[in-house]
Amino acid sequence: MLPLEVYESHTTYGPRQLYRLQLDIYGFFESRPPPEHFFVAENIDRTPVDLPNVLGEDELQPFKHPLIDAGSQIRLVSLLPPERPADRGESREPLQCTIEVHSLAKVPEYEALSYTWGGIHRHMPISVLGKDADGNAIEEALFATLQLLMALRRLRLVSTPRRLWIDQLCIDQDNPKEVRSQVQLMGDIYKAARRVVVWLGEDIKHTIVTPFKSWEETNSTHLLDLIREIPSNSHNAADNTIRVTSLVQFGLTYFFERVEMGRLRAVYELLWRPWFRRAWVFQEASLAKELSVQFGRAEIDFGNLENVFSAIQRAEVDLGIHRDILGLGDLATSTAT
């Protein structure tokens, strides 16, 4: 398998363009470490692990990718639903899929996954169903990284297959020539996708503490609260600031963590996920017809997240809060809002 630098070196953006593109897409740019009591996952493999059941590495024969014209064709994965009923993204059945070859010029509707690999050791088997030369059903193993296995568990639909393009599975990673050719197509692949789904890793829980009780709350719950409560069409700066300050707490407390502080923590801990600091994902996101985020079991429209990021940044400016007080880095005004 080629090192991940192959993917990063494919980007054509210079430092100034990357900075500008970050602002255009995400509405923020962070440059300083957050407070020590915030959970910072500088490596995606430091995030929580929540795997489906996994086959043994030697239970199935290794899958051999069907040959393609790497300059014009792609493979697509159809992620199969679990056999037993379960809530979406909650089944722990081993993952199963099929793989088909298509011309990029005439490809069925699909979604493309944008994510960080984490450790590049592909040792977690995924079952690939197919047929041999005689038409007999066969089952083989395609190996993936830990992060991809968790992403696929959350992306698996309840009762229907989900067609995806995923570099790690759809490109023969043991064929350097094919990897190079397919990397040249990646811009077209993400542009042709119906939607780009960003995997940010598993969710994390924190304890909310008040003088009278304590309980656990996930970061995704806080983010969804903010999305519901912060209007996306408000252009009144004063109304925005009043709304935001009623929802989040900018000052630190040392004995209690209120829900309002938990919400601000959730925003910045999300922004410090490694996906936001990798060069090639900016191209993947900028080419997307539609962009969504899978964060643990929560699927969130990226535009809603950007609205929350921008609203909090505008409130900080209006309140005259110097961002170094929190050490949370910069939020820059988005050109998309």
Detailed description of the structure:
The protein is α/β, with parallel strands linked by helices and 337 residues long. 32% of the residues lie in helices and 19% in strands.
N- and C-termini, Cα separation = 41 Å
Order of helices and strands: HHEEEEEEHEHHEEEHHHHEEH
Residue windows where pLDDT falls under 50 for at least 5 positions: 1-32, 324-337
Rg result? 21 Å
Number of helices: 10
Indicate the mean pLDDT: 81
Strand order of the largest sheet: 1-6-5-3-2-7-4-8-11-12
Q: Largest sheet, described in full?
A: 10 strands, mixed
Per DSSP, what share of the residues sits in E-state strands of 2 or more residues?
Answer: 15-25%
Task: Count every beta strand, where a strand is a DSSP E run of 2 or more residues.
Answer: 12
Structural class: alpha/beta
Helix content: 25-40%
- Described by the principal axes of the CA atoms, the overall outline is elongated
